[in-house]
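Supplementary Methods. Inverse-folding protocol.

Structures were first reduced to a C-alpha cell string of length 103. This string, shown here, constituted the complete conditioning input.
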C-alpha cells in the first residue's frame, strides 16, 4: 500500500506545464506515431509466430524494436518541440519501413 504522504511529496515537486492546442496535438501525434511503430512490430511478430519455423532472430529484433519504442515514448518531453516533431517524423517513417519489410 502506498503511503499517502509520499504521494503528496512526489506530486508537490511536479512543475506545471502550459501548452497550446497545437502543441498538445503535435505531442499526441508523435505519441501516436510511436504507437503505430509498436503496432507494426506487433504485426511482424504475429506473422512470424504463425510460421512453421519462426525465426528467433526476427522475433527478437521485433521485440527489441517494440521495447525501444516504449523507451522513446516514455522519454518524449512535450515541452521539447523539436524532439516532438522529430519523433513524429522518425516513427512515422519507421512504421512505413516495417510495413514494407525494410526494417
Amino acid at each position: 500500500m502506498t503511503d499517502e504522504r509520499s504521494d503528496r511529496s512526489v506530486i508537490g515537486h511536479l512543475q506545471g506545464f502550459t501548452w497550446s492546442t497545437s502543441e498538445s496535438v503535435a505531442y499526441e501525434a508523435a505519441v501516436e506515431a510511436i504507437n503505430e511503430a509498436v503496432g507494426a512490430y506487433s504485426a511482424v511478430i504475429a506473422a512470424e509466430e504463425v510460421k512453421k519455423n519462426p525465426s528467433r532472430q526476427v522475433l527478437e529484433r521485433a521485440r527489441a524494436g517494440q521495447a525501444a519504442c516504449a523507451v522513446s515514448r516514455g522519454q518524449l518531453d512535450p515541452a521539447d518541440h523539436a524532439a516532438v516533431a522529430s519523433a513524429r517524423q522518425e516513427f512515422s517513417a519507421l512504421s512505413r519501413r516495417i510495413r514494407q519489410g525494410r526494417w
